Amino acid sequence: MKKLYFIFLVPLFLSAQNLEELVNLSIQNKQVDSSQKSLDSIKDEYESIKSGYMPSLDVGANHSITDKETSSVPKNSSKTYASISYELYDGGKKSDVYDSYESKIKSNQESVLALKNDIALNVITYYYNYLSYISQKEAKLKEIEQLDSELSRLSRFLDAGTTTEDEVQKIISRLESSKVSLQEIELQIITVLHNLEYITGQKVSIDAGSHINELVNDTPTDSRFDLKSLEYDLDTKLANSRSEKSAYLPTITLDNTFTYYDSDYNNDAFSNSLDHQNIASASLKWNIFSFGETKYKYESKYKEYLSSKLNYEYEKNKANIDLELAIKAYEISKLKIKSSEANLKAATTAYDVIKSKYQNGLIDNVSFLESLSEKFTALSQLRTSQNDLEIKKANILYYSGKKLEENIK
């Protein structure tokens, strides 16, 4: 039974993941989970603050024994009480504290979305870089295959005395150089896979074929999630500064305490009939003078708000420039594809002609090796340009404030 269970599980672990699956895995990683728990913590803290503004009920009891009994202090006495207290007015601080926490929660919610989008963009970049490295690997393997074939052909000619040793050594040198390049590409592939495994938290196997949606020109752009987070953070700091002004105003508190007494006097002359008491009270507290403490607290918080506002405006302007640059980079990538297609066509045509001349002994192997290298380089560049275009589309979506996981097909 265990063997059958293992057999059924193996395909699940070995199946390749497309880009959408990789992104979905990555935005559920421990880093996102940590940010989500931090958000939940703030929500719980807010609930605690709101509960603190509700009426509070306290109960208590005590028992005492004295060695000197008086009319007001019996030999043995017990007391139980229940008290309810409510802060009727706190100078308007409560509404500012509520506003602060609500903005803080929204800011953290946007931060979580921003983190997910950042991770998604990284995964998309790794995914298409991986595909580019794979295309480079395939091109390099084909180049090595051609060089191996040419080496075998020249070796036969060398044995027959129709070519020279230096011609063979040139092929061997280029072949060994290509093998080194292949190992470097392999290292890049392994590095990308390790980075993806680090982000997703599990082994990955990449399946090609995914594409990024292209943002339609008339689609309205949204503010990026990180900018929305900064905007809500501004609201939080402004509310915090307003809350400091509440110290200029009075606070009003209502209390009601019911107490039950059980007094045991040794001297009957001291005994009284009082066994319970209810006291209702309203108290007002107003700080009239505190050497400017409230003023400086307010100014400190307000300057913190102004500082954050300047940073927000800077980041907002930078985001607009980043979007413009992303669009320009996308247009350049489309031109690169056209250029790469033309280069590949020219390199392939030139290679076919030069290969025929070389095999007929009309040119030396230097020209042949150059044309071979140019052909496979052009093939690799075309695929790299196509993959780079997908990354550029993702960048436009990112800077337009769109969720990347919703724009993968």
Outline the structure in words.
- The structure is a single chain.
- It is built from 8 helices and 4 strands, in the order H-H-H-E-E-H-H-H-E-E-H-H.
- It has helices at 2-14, 19-26, 30-52, 93-160, 165-200, 225-244, 293-359, 365-399, and strands at 56-65, 76-89, 251-264, 276-285.
- A 4-stranded antiparallel sheet has the order 1-2-3-4, with no helix packed on it.
What share of the residues does DSSP label as strand, in percent? Answer: 5-15%
Name of the CATH architecture of the largest domain = Up-down Bundle
Major sheet size, sense and barrel closure:
4 strands, antiparallel
Spatial extent as radius of gyration: 38 Å
User: What's the average pLDDT?
Assistant: 87
If strands are numbered along the chain, what order do they take across the biggest sheet?
Answer: 1-2-3-4
Shape: elongated
DSSP helical segment count? 8
Determine the CATH topology of the largest domain. Answer: Outer membrane efflux proteins (OEP)
Structural class: alpha+beta
What percentage of residues falls in helices of 4 or more residues?
A: 55-70%
Provide the CATH superfamily of the largest domain: Outer membrane efflux proteins (OEP)
Measured between the Cα atoms of the first and last residue, the distance is 39 Å
Summary of the model, kept short:
It is found in: Cell outer membrane. The chain has 409 residues and is of the alpha+beta class.
Protein traits:
409 residues; alpha+beta; Outer membrane efflux proteins (OEP); 4-stranded antiparallel beta sheet; 4 strands; disordered N terminus
